[in-house]
Amino acid sequence: xxxxxxxxxxxxxxxxxxxxxxxxxxxxxxxxxxxxxxxxxxxxxxxxxxxxxxxxxxxxxxxxxxxxxxxxxxxxxxxxxxxxxxxxxxxxxxxxxxxxxxxxxxxxxxxxxxxxxxxxxxxxxxxxxxxxxxxxxxxxxxxxxxxxxxxxxxxxxxxxxxxx
Length: 164
Fold this sequence. Notes:
7% strand, mainly alpha, globular, 3-stranded antiparallel β-sheet, 70% helix
């Protein structure tokens, strides 16, 4: 358990360096790519459910007289990083299996976050007095819980005869 926690913390440190260091921001810019994709797909889904997206400007989604700002934490990347680090830290010799879980886990968490942002768009337009509660506590907690549950599901589906 100590080994897992140590590796988990090291991977967390490495991932946050990847998105925070100026060198990586200027070359890879992974956070920006992820955020813009999140905004684009969220805007489509918000329109699809009948809420009119007036425009998208950078990190802002304008819906009537409301603005949703999709920044780090709101873009779902925190939950994805927590999930990725847990998979990397847990010993598993089957690299293809890990890559599959990375890919499908990313798509799943990305999709859940788009639904989350769409739900928040509904809340801010119809029940704005509850937006802060839903945004800060409820939906953020749900995202972290889903990432954790996905990791537990990964653990339950490992082949114990081949793994350490």
